[in-house]
Amino acid sequence: MPTGKKMTAFDYINSFLLLSFSLLCLFPFLYVISVSLTDPEVYRPFAFTLIPEKFSLRGYSYILGSINFKNALYSTVYITVIGTLLNLLFTFTMAYGLTKKDLPQRNWIMVIVIFTLVFNAGIVPNFLLIKNLGLLNSYWALIWSAMINSFSLIVVKSFLQSLPEELEDAAKINGCNDIGVFFKIVLPLSLPALAAFTLFFAVGHWNTYFNALIYLSDAKKWTLQLLVKSLIVDANANSVQGSLTDSDQILPQETIRLAAVVVAMLPILVVYPFLQKYFAKGVLLGSVKG
């Protein structure tokens, strides 16, 4: 039976410190979930507890029954789904084109990409650009402004360069054109990178806050992050007033806020485990090869 390395005093101390730090990071999440599941009748402000005295889903039913919350959820899902699909399409097609050495002005295009990675136009020029394009107060202002990320493009390009060129040559001999090679050969071989960057782009769109704050003035088009900010920072629960079975019952504001926080972060936490096995592999391959 093989034996592992003997644990030293440093290993025990290091493990204890890492475990303690992990628990400290976990406690806020447990507290948020605990308060959101606490029955309003037994909720006590400023009382720290990790296990609800009495479980209740009334905070969630209150939130999910709100018209404003439904609008924010729709806005966030729409931006995330459409934005992620377009991010993947534009990033992978452009990266694939840049891997071709016979592409005209290929080096100059890469210089422009790297230049935008180092230098940013700033908030005011970006706002004026979105305004002149007529995209203010629309979902497309958030989607188009984050269409291609230079860092992601460079990593994907590096990953695609690591794929065997012989497979593309064989496909072209069998009658495939460049589009057929891309969709039938390149993309199936790029599943780890696709999964990794799907998670990157989806998390970015789901958590979009600053751009939404700048470009969206209509409260009906707010994203979940703006709504949660309104609840927590502005300390105003009126923005989630919605249909409630017992209109005379007023839930504690803290219960409503933290229920909104849980609903806002839950989808990403649910999706991540399904993409985790591709996550490290996809990023690593694109980072070290090419």
UniProtKB/TrEMBL annotation:
<dbReference type="GO" id="GO:0055085">
    <property type="term" value="P:transmembrane transport"/>
</dbReference>
<dbReference type="GO" id="GO:0005886">
    <property type="term" value="C:plasma membrane"/>
</dbReference>
<feature type="transmembrane region" description="Helical">
    <location>
        <begin position="72"/>
        <end position="96"/>
    </location>
</feature>
<dbReference type="InterPro" id="IPR035906">
    <property type="entry name" value="MetI-like_sf"/>
</dbReference>
<comment type="similarity">
    <text>Belongs to the binding-protein-dependent transport system permease family.</text>
</comment>
<dbReference type="InterPro" id="IPR000515">
    <property type="entry name" value="MetI-like"/>
</dbReference>
<keyword id="KW-0472">Membrane</keyword>
<feature type="transmembrane region" description="Helical">
    <location>
        <begin position="141"/>
        <end position="160"/>
    </location>
</feature>
<keyword id="KW-0813">Transport</keyword>
<feature type="transmembrane region" description="Helical">
    <location>
        <begin position="181"/>
        <end position="203"/>
    </location>
</feature>
<feature type="transmembrane region" description="Helical">
    <location>
        <begin position="12"/>
        <end position="33"/>
    </location>
</feature>
<feature type="transmembrane region" description="Helical">
    <location>
        <begin position="108"/>
        <end position="129"/>
    </location>
</feature>
<keyword id="KW-1003">Cell membrane</keyword>
<keyword id="KW-0812">Transmembrane</keyword>
<feature type="domain" description="ABC transmembrane type-1">
    <location>
        <begin position="73"/>
        <end position="275"/>
    </location>
</feature>
<keyword id="KW-1133">Transmembrane helix</keyword>
<dbReference type="Pfam" id="PF00528">
    <property type="entry name" value="BPD_transp_1"/>
</dbReference>
<protein>
    <submittedName>
        <fullName>Carbohydrate ABC transporter permease</fullName>
    </submittedName>
</protein>
<feature type="transmembrane region" description="Helical">
    <location>
        <begin position="256"/>
        <end position="275"/>
    </location>
</feature>
